[in-house]
Amino acid sequence: MRSTAIMLCLISLALSGTAANAQSAHHQARQILDAAGVEGGIVVHLGCGDGKLTAALHVNDSYLVHGLDTDPENIETALLMALSAAQGEKLTERRLDGVPVFDGMAAAGGNLYISMADGRLICMKKE
């Protein structure tokens, strides 16, 4: 499992050059997943940018895809891309007044708890 994750990272880095940017996101996603030889699992796309590749990596419900980026504008753009790609409706929206710690999230009882970089814990309650 660890070697597969490392392989996905290496393939993603190899394809992130200028030539890869000219490819469609779906073609690039298919290349990454085919080269990794995986048929499902968790995919973490670091530096997700506009979210096009992130959305394309979710080829079916066997994949759980997370896009992470340090730029708040990229995160917002990627979120809108993901919602559009899933053809889902936005259930809720909340602006965070700080930077979340991405490894500090948990869900329980229908609520999402987010650790913030300044030490606060935010609870996003189910509406």
Report on this structure.
- It is built from five helices and five strands.
- It is α+β, with helices and mostly antiparallel strands and about 130 residues long.
- The chain has helices at about 1-15, 20, 25-35, 50-55, 70-85; strands at about 40-45, 65-70, 100-110, 110-115, 120-125.
- A hairpin with a 2-residue loop joins strand 3 (about 100-110) and strand 4 (about 110-115).
- The protein folds into two domains: about 1-90, no CATH class; about 90-125, no CATH class.
- It is globular and about 40 Å long.
- Helix content is about 40%, strand content about 25%.
- The strands form two sheets. It has a three-stranded antiparallel sheet, with no helix packed on it. Strands 1-2 form a two-stranded parallel sheet.
Helix content, binned percent: 25-40%
Mean pLDDT: 76
**Helical element count?**
5
Please give the largest β-sheet: 3 strands, antiparallel
Strand order of the biggest β-sheet: 3-4-5
Summed up, the domain count is 2
Distance between the termini: 37 Å
Which percent range describes the beta-strand content? 15-25%
Low-confidence stretches: 17-22
Number of strands: 5
